[in-house]
Amino acid sequence: MKYFLLSFSFIFFCSFCFGQLQQTLFNDNWEFQLKPSDPVSIVSLPHTPKLEPLVMNGQFLGEVVYRKRFDYPLEKGRRLSIHFEGAMHTAEVFLNGQLVGSHIGGYLPFDVDLTSELQDSANVLEVFLDNREDPTVPPGKPIKDLDFYYHAGIYRNVWLEEFSGVQIQDPYFQTINANSSSATLQLDFELKYEPDYVILPLQVVAKLGDATFTLTNESFTDSTNTILYTGRINLKTPQLWSPSNPNLYDLTIDIIYAQDTLASQVLKVGIRKPELKADGFYLNGTKLFLSGTNRHQEYPYVGYAVPDNAQKRDAQLIKDAGFNFVRLSHYPQAPAFYEACDELGIIVMDAIAGWQYYNPSRIFEQRCRNDLYALTFRDRNHPSVIFWENSLNETNMPDDFIAQMNYIFKQQIGSNGFSAGWLDHPSYDVFIPARQHANAPNYWAGYKPKAKAMFIAEYGDWEYYAQNAGFNQTQFADLAPTERNSRHLRGASEKALLQQAFNFQEASNSNRKGANIIGEANWVCFDYNRGYSPDLEASGIYDITRLPKYAVSYYKSQLLDATHKPYVKIATNWSVLSPTSVTVYSNCDQVELLLNDKSILKKTATPGPASDYLAQPPFQFEIPAFEAGKLVARGFNRQVRVASDQVQTPGKPVQITLELDTLQYGIDIAKADLIFVRAKLLDANGTVVPTNDYKVTFSVQAQDAGLMCPAIQAMEAGIASALLRTEAPAHEILIKVSLTALGLTDQLIWKP
Length: 752
Description:
- This protein is mainly beta.
- The protein folds into five domains: 22-163, Jelly Rolls; 164-269, Immunoglobulins (Immunoglobulin-like, Sandwich); 274-548, TIM Barrel (Alpha-Beta Barrel); 568-648, Immunoglobulins (Immunoglobulin-like, Sandwich); 655-750, Sandwich (Immunoglobulin-like).
- Helices cover 12% and strands 37% of the residues.
- The strands form eleven sheets. Strands 22-23-24-25-26-27-28-29 form an eight-stranded parallel β-barrel. A six-stranded antiparallel β-sheet has the order 3-2-4-9-6-7, with no helix packed on it. It has a four-stranded antiparallel β-sheet with strand order 1-10-5-8, with no helix packed on it.
- Helix 1 (308-320) runs parallel beside helix 2, helix 3 runs parallel beside helix 4 and helix 7 (494-511) packs parallel to helix 8 (550-556).
- It is globular, with a radius of gyration of 27 Å.
- The relative contact order is 0.09.
């Protein structure tokens, strides 16, 4: 057992203040009013004031009120605060008719101390919210000109936090140096205390995994009643965090007097050493190319009101697609999502709120700085968060603003992460251009950044969608619109979806030719709504209901490391409308394609102009003519068959089946959850019939679950999706679907 000692000091507290922090989820049984004249409805959090259509054309903007009635007898010497993970975007909080706190900014947490106005019983807490456009509140840009929406409501979790006169504040765990044999780690935090307590000596103990370290205070600040702690820890044979091995430790900080714990905090941390070198990005001494995507946190119908489990499912889909990186566009996202990235091994580029807008007013700049402070305090202990977009995306910013933001970043993060900016400014660690913006697709491959490194933050969409790119792609003048377009709904033709996948492939291949490029993130992971356009932004590799397009299979085929299994996917429905040039995505050495048990060809993938820098070029097979039946692809490594896939020509639809798309997380039985319900139209062989021609009707019978979407939903490529919300379900959920036109029905029963 090792102990790290700093210096000796004493602090003194009265015995009635003993007791640890108590956190209580405060999401249930809120009263809600859209307007003061409206009837009161009872809701649970996360909540959105107005359910939106699947495809939005404008969003709710206005004032709303949330009200909570509760009893809370508070022991003498204890305090009570309320913690909001996020509420959009201007908030005033009243307790028993008295203003107790306010907050401006919709994407970051805030706390309000309730102690002064708290009663033992019959408390009335009111939260007044206003998400109307305000040019001084980041992102600041009017909705009609914005590339996303900012959805109203208390859309994240709320917690009651009871604590004593001792509080652990702003802990920061850093990796100073690390390799497989040893690690040097640093822990810093502030201890806040009430000034009028009886004198008692104080002990601080920090425990990382099985190693226990005892610390005393470094300095004592009388004016703020704060003690600052800092110390370094040497750990042998650490379990390092990385995308392939996302090892996590429990870090526990205890504030102790005698045998009593006055305050305690537990952090999930990881030990990792990121570095930018002349030849690329390194993690724990190993060079790593960052292959990723961009994510908007929006869900259909509910906007930002996405519970924790649904946040984690998004992270799982990103990991399953083969990515080791995600850029959070273009604002801070939910705590549960970062936790999932820690657990799954996804490197994160965090971001303040901003997109193509800068307001030179002092108040706007100050709010940007406040957001950065809040963001770094909230997220800096996540091992997944290595890159920080401390700039306004796609925005021209003055030098003094850039300097201020980078100063804050270095002050809060130090050398434990890297700053990133859309402008190629030497103050940034990483320059993050998009591939469009009036430059030819190969432009960035030869670009020499002023920043330390370059990361292609967006690619694969706009450069193949010249109508919206803001320039005329003359070098592609001979291409048809469908050949340059990357925006296709999942129900589009096979040719269109293959073209989308090819656009991502071609751009990604080009990115890898740049000597200064440390990684890339495609645009975008999930289809989403945006303010400036009345249609869905459909360049997602998943649709808005989180179903994959062919592009997902392309990315999965690029996984060649030992952590991923052999993979083969035939990218066709194999119908009379299908191209006879069949694409197979695979990470295997060879693939053999068979049609109705007859071998078409066994081949090795051949690199071409759009695949010569890829880990694994797609396999292309030419079939002379369409023949209905079964296509089988077999993948071989070293002549041994290791994977296979098959598709069969769809027949007439004869059945419909229901599935709950919970992935590995199941349904959350502790709090609210959102789950997509899939109705699949099948033929006699169990093959999905990829039609867009039918509508189905969903229904739910349950005490603690219901639909968050219209009951009637259209089939898209043979699958209709409904959105189910559950409220800590303790009872059976019965889901039914009917397709009246074909006389088909099915039902599904979920049991706790």
